[in-house]
Design a protein that fits this description.
12 helices; single chain; Elongation Factor Tu (Ef-tu), domain 3; TIM Barrel; eight-stranded parallel beta barrel; 2 domains; 409 residues; eight-stranded antiparallel sheet
Length: 409
């Protein structure tokens, strides 16, 4: 099978709502975690029953499910791994993502038929390591984020065709090597390698002289500010063709701790970008409206990471926060009889201009000339959380379409 046909959009699913968002908006596969052994402690994650249900729902839609067990477990956790992996088999997950050689060996022991993906935490930066992991039973390597397209191309040329290559293409980046960081554990006793990162790389730092404890001096890496460890977000949506040319088979979106809206919009954007590439592989040029979608979620300034070699432009010195220009104001429940039936998520008013986003469709702009509550009464504003709304509209949208509005500056 050619790389184009194998090309996968892989989306994060931190909980059930985000799982449905990823499936509805075009993911080929999702990655998610249990309460144990995963690299994200803050999302709700999945219990055994929830995982079993999640896999059933995904498989009905033709979507694969990859289970993260990519922490670095300590001695006292090893005894619990057999039950963990046997439950994964019972739930029929399609693959597990591991970072530790010992964990890989336990997967082979307790679940010999389970597909294994080696996490970016493994730090694969060369073809020798990739080949050795393949020989040990890995079906896929998630390459270190620090590699260039040229280096990925070289790895692809030196590994078997049966070894999948996955890379992160979108989302938050860690200033440490492929996420292996001790800063959070040193500063607040939250171990990033066990899913508990407090993100101290996003904090603003100052210098204090020993005998002047209340006098703070700013640290300037240059004239723009003091966020000396803060990285921009990664975005490779314009370069699907170059990723394919390098031999990448899975495009991974970061964000298991991000919102369902983020998962929906970013999955949708990459789904459309990949589909557009498949139609025009020899003259790929992304339509502007698809590219614009990645700017309509909360994000930091974007960069292309190490893919083109030089990442000196990937630090952001002004702030550790996000750029957020749009709010989700409603979710469509269904459409009938020339009206949208929706549930409110944020306040908006009659007369406002909104955008409606549906899977694999260009956003539709709509001015709300009139709206009604669930009793059929005309209302001027939707200002109660989760209130039911009726908005006249001649266009039919599928359930779970998103109503968003640009924020006032």
């Amino acid at each position: 099978m050619s790389i184009i046909n194998r090309l996968e959009v892989l989306s994060p699913a931190g909980d059930y709502e985000r799982l449905i968002s990823a499936i509805d908006y075009g993911a080929d596969a999702v990655y998610l975690g249990r309460k144990e052994f995963g690299m994200r402690a803050s999302p709700l994650n999945f219990s055994y029953d929830e995982l079993k249900s999640a896999v059933e729902i995904a498989h009905k839609k033709g979507v694969k499910v990859y289970l993260t067990c990519n922490t670095l477990p300590r001695n006292d956790e090893i005894s619990g791994f057999q039950a963990f992996i046997e439950e994964a088999v019972d739930c029929k997950v399609d693959a597990v993502i591991v970072a530790d050689i010992g964990v890989l060996s336990l997967v082979k022991k307790f679940a010999p038929d389970m597909e294994i993906h080696m996490s970016t935490q493994t730090g694969v930066v060369n073809y020798v390591t990739a080949n050795e992991l393949y020989n040990m039973g890995a079906k896929r390597v998630v390459l270190a984020r620090e590699l260039s397209l040229e280096e990925i191309t070289q790895i692809r040329a030196m590994v078997p065709d049966g070894l999948d290559i996955e890379v992160f293409v979108h989302g938050s980046m860690c200033v440490s090597f492929s996420g292996r960081c001790l800063l959070s554990q040193y500063m607040v006793n939250r171990d990033a390698n066990r899913g508990e990162c407090a993100q101290p790389c996003r904090w603003s730092y100052n210098l204090v002289e020993e005998k002047r404890p209340n006098e703070f001096y700013p640290i300037y890496e240059d004239e723009r500010g003091t966020y000396i460890l803060n990285a921009k977000d990664l975005c490779m949506i314009d370069y699907i063709d170059k990723l394919v040319d390098a031999g990448v088979t899975s495009l991974k979106i970061e964000g298991r701790a991000k919102s369902a809206y983020y998962v929906s919009i970013i999955t949708n954007a990459y789904r459309m970008a990949v589909d557009h590439y498949r139609i025009n592989p020899n003259s790929f040029e992304l339509p502007k409206w698809i590219r614009d979608e990645v700017f309509k979620v909360s994000h930091r300034k974007y960069c292309t990471g190490f893919f083109f070699g030089d990442a000196r432009d990937c630090q952001y010195y002004e702030t550790g926060g996000y750029i957020r220009e749009y709010d989700v104001v409603g979710i469509i429940d269904y459409c009938a009889d020339g009206s949208i039936y929706a549930t409110q998520r944020n306040r908006f008013f009659s007369g406002d201009i909104v955008e409606i986003i549906s899977p694999q469709k260009e956003p539709v702009e709509l001015r709300i000339s009139v709206m009604y509550n669930d009793r059929g009464e005309v209302i001027e504003k939707a200002n109660h959380a989760m209130m039911k709304l009726i908005i006249p509209c001649d266009i039919e949208f599928p359930a779970n379409s998103i109503i968003r509005m640009k924020k006032e500056k």
